[in-house]
Structures are given as C-alpha cells and as structure tokens.
Amino acid sequence: MKLLIVLAVAVACASADVSHIVTPDYQVPIVKSNFDSKPDGTGFNHAFEAGNGIVQEAQGVVKNPNSEAATLEVTGNVKYTAPDGTPVELYYIANEAGYQPTGSHVPKVPEHVLRAQEYIASHAPKVSQEYKAVKGAGLGGGSGSPTDFVSVFGKR
C-alpha cells in the first residue's frame, strides 16, 4: 500500500506542469558566489548575488562543539526587490531559541498581545477544588469507574 502511495506521488510530481515556475527564457545568472567552511566542521560562511539583485549572506557557527550540548547558530540576511518595487531586507538568527526573523515586511506582534502573554505567564492558572476531586477520584486518568463519578458529584 505504501509503495502505491509513493508511486502515485512520484507520477504526480513527474507530470506536474511547472513551466510557469521556471521557463527557459528566464534564467537568472549568479553574479557572485562564495562558500567557506571550517575544516573541523564548526562553522561556515556563505554568500551569493544573483543577476536580478537578490543578495544573500549567512554565517554559521557550532556553539560548544566538543560537548553533548553542541548547537548550530546561523545568522544571515537576504535583500531583494519585491514585485511592487519595494526593497526588502530580511535579517535572521536561527539557534536553540528557534528562527527569529526581523525586517520591515515581517509582521510585528501587537503590543496588546505581548501584554496579554506577559499577564498569562505571570498568573498561573488556579486549580479548582472540583478538578482536584475529579482527578483524585480517578476520572482524570484513574480507574474511571461510574462509582468514582457518583462519589465526586453525587446522584442526580
């Protein structure tokens, strides 16, 4: 069955019309390209510039390379002109805290949402006595028998 699904996906991909994505009459030359990596595998530098004005740079470094807590941190930027003529610059860092983009076109989290998140984080939810009783009676993962329910909530 899995083989049939993989085969169907392969046939669909092979027969897909991608002529609108890449056409022979529109090829962008790479004007500059550079890639350097450290021989010990602890970092790299990468940059390129395309003939249509796209410029991309990235640097990566392995933090704590000789430990079990080794992590890769990549910083970089991309510059291009949007179809409407607006210059776009994206700066990013990707590390153990996740991908963190910044740029004029990247949506900002509204101030009221940030305040709400801070409030929620500083006010831990209170566990009600009813929840504790249900959990203690086994309804939240215990035996779950009907007698547990009756002992907590009573008969109707």
Explain this structure.
The chain has 156 residues and is an alpha+beta fold. Strands 1-2-3-4-5-6 form a 6-stranded antiparallel sheet, with no helix packed on it. The longest helix is centred in the first third of the chain and has 14 residues. The relative contact order is 0.07.
Provide the fold topology.
Blueprint: H1 2-15, E1 30-37, E2 43-50, E3 55-63, E4 71-81, E5 87-95, E6 98-103, H2 111-122, H3 129-136, H4 146-153
Antiparallel strand pairs: 1-2, 2-3, 3-4, 4-5, 5-6
Q: What's this model, at a glance?
A:
The chain is an alpha+beta fold and 156 residues long. The chain has helices at residues 2-15, 111-122, 129-136, 146-153, and strands at residues 30-37, 43-50, 55-63, 71-81, 87-95, 98-103.
| Largest β sheet strand count, sense and barrel closure | 6 strands, antiparallel
Distance between termini? 51 Å
Query: Overall pLDDT, averaged?
Result: 77
Strand order of the largest sheet: 1-2-3-4-5-6
Helix tally equals 4
Radius of gyration from CA coordinates: 28 Å
Structural class: alpha+beta
Oligomer: single chain
- General shape: flat
In the predicted model, the low-confidence regions spanning at least 5 consecutive residues are 1-8
Compressed to H and E, one letter per element, the order equals HEEEEEEHHH
- Number of beta-strand segments: 6
Q: State the share of residues found in helices, binned by percent.
A: 25-40%
Beta content comes to 25-35%
